[in-house]
Amino acid sequence: MTKWEELDQNVRTWIMEAGKTIRESFKEELNIKTKSNRNDLVTNMDEATERYFIEKIRGTYKDHNILGEEGFGDELKELSGVTWIIDPIDGTMNFVHQQRNFAISIGVYENQVGVLGYIYDVVHDELYHAYRGSGAYMNDVKLPKLSDVPVEDSVIALNAQWMTTNKRIDPAVLAPLVQKVRGTRSYGSAAIEMAYIAAGRLDAYISMRLAPWDFAAGKILIEEVGGVVTDLEGKELDPLNKSSLFVGKPGLHETIMTDYLKR
Ligand code: IPD
Ligand code: CA
Ligand code: CA
Ligand code: CA
Description:
By secondary structure, this protein is α+β, with helices and mostly antiparallel strands. It has 2 domains: 140 residues, Fructose-1,6-Bisphosphatase, subunit A, domain 1 (Fructose-1,6-Bisphosphatase, Chain A, domain 1); 111 residues, D-Maltodextrin-Binding Protein, domain 2, CATH 3.40.190. 33% of the residues lie in helices and 27% in strands. The longest helix has 23 residues. The relative contact order is 0.13. The mean pLDDT is 97. The structure holds D-MYO-inositol-1-phosphate (IPD) and calcium ion (3 copies). Pfam families: Inositol_P. This is inositol-phosphate phosphatase.
């Protein structure tokens, strides 16, 4: 077994175990706190799940680095060696309000390059995973390569907040796109939205501000099926910094970029 195959087996075991613990927590009372504002939630389960992964990783891979949303990992200034980028619960608001549509998201990078990506939709028991160069899977089903779709036949994911006055984008830029597409959706979990792109359930996804743990795994998954992952300006993502995100099917990504975003 190669080092990556062994690591893959370990992560899957840990993800399944963490998912089970989260599902079992539904019957218990949650401890909910707010972070940067009253809608930015964190629960005891976000923290416990991140701590669980960190304990497992530290116990097995002493020289690996960890970047976790809840801050129990390392403070990293650069990506060197093997780095785990973890969002213990992506979609905390959904976790709290709906008990569904949230995911565990883990990307494993070697230096700057994403090697393994996992997005586990805990309630639907769907594990999206990819190994760089070997394709992407949903549970045991290999995901087919993505192909172009016309804008007017596409379904894109977008949070309605970007269509109101906000400091990151003029809604007038997005309005013609929203008018042209077949439909828009918003799932409230960037990781699930990226997994859905990889699985062909969505054709593109736009977000104005995400953090490395939101997109680390999704980037690997989408690129493995031939999708395109950039920021809103069409530039490469920086795996250590916050940025906007624009992902989509090949062809469609370019069309939206030139006909709508860069006009
Ligand atoms: C959030 C979700 C949400 C996105 C936010 C993220 P969290 O992550 O991915 O869909 O719109 O920007 O912060 O806080 O639930 O892990
Ligand atoms: Ca959060
Ligand atoms: Ca997140
Ligand atoms: Ca989170």
